[in-house]
Amino acid sequence: MKPQLTETGHHQLTNRLVRLKKERTDARERIRTARKFCDFREDVTYREAVHEYERIEADILELNHLLDDVIIVISERSEVVTFGNQVVIREMQQEETERYRIVSEAEADIERGSISVTSPLGRRLMGATIGQTIQIETPGGTIQVEVLHIEP
After folding, report:
1. What is the pLDDT of residues 89-132, one digit of tens each?
2. Edge-to-edge order in the sheet of strand 86-91
3. pTM of the shown model
4. Spatial CB neighbours of 128, under 8 Å, sequence gap ≥ 6
5. What does the pLDDT read at residue 120?
6. Kindly report the CA angle at 5 between 98 and 74, in degrees rounded to 5?
7. In sequence order, which ranges of the chain are alpha helices (DSSP H)?
8. Residues 108, 109, 114, 118: is their CA dihedral positive or negative?
9. Sign for the pseudo-dihedral over CA of 78, 81, 85, 90
10. What is the pLDDT of residue 41?
11. What is the pLDDT of residue 75?
12. How many CB atoms lie within 10 A of CB 131?
């Protein structure tokens, strides 16, 4: 099955790829500089530059692979929670609400209000309807949340 991304997620990951390619160029230059001044008895600077370059290169390869195979999903208004929807929920016995967008693992960022479709909450929300109460197993025990609103 091909990976899915929202339009926003695709844009963010494409921008990240552009930044990584610039970082790769900078990392190559640090390696060249470290080689010129490298004392092979103390080549910590050189090794660090190589490790950084390898990390960047691995990230670029991973993002290229993901972006080459991705299906971009356009979220639509729905009566049930689907991929890309934003869902407003309220934990039972609580006053405040929480808002999450259901996205792929690659674009999930809890601080930005997006959770992975494969997370415990994301899995349980998929297919839920407005007014439905669902149970979620957490490390602290089972919680119940009510689906208040579904947005595209």
Report:
1. 999 988 999 999 999 999 999 999 999 999 999 999 999 999 99
2. 114-116, 97-103, 86-91, 141-151, 133-138
3. 0.78
4. 80, 81, 87, 134, 147
5. 92
6. 80
7. 7-36, 44-69, 120-125
8. positive
9. positive
10. 55
11. 87
12. 9
Residue 82 pLDDT > 60: yes
141 φ/ψ sector (left φ>0, alpha ψ -120 to 50, else beta): left
Question: Considering only CA atoms, which of 102, 100, 92 is closest in space to residue 133?
Answer: 92
Between CA 39 and CA 52 the distance in angstroms is: 19
What pLDDT, on a 0 to 100 scale, did the predictor assign at position 40? 57
Query: Strand 133-138 vs strand 114-116: parallel, antiparallel, or unpaired?
Result: unpaired
On average, the pLDDT of the chain sits at 92
Asked if residues 17 and 67 have their Cβ atoms less than 8 Å apart, the reply is: yes
- The pLDDT value recorded for residue 49 is 86
Q: CA-CA distances (angstroms) from residue 132 to 36, 46, 80, 123?
A: 65, 57, 10, 14
**pLDDT of 25 over the 90 cut:** yes
Token pair belonging to 28: 């190559």
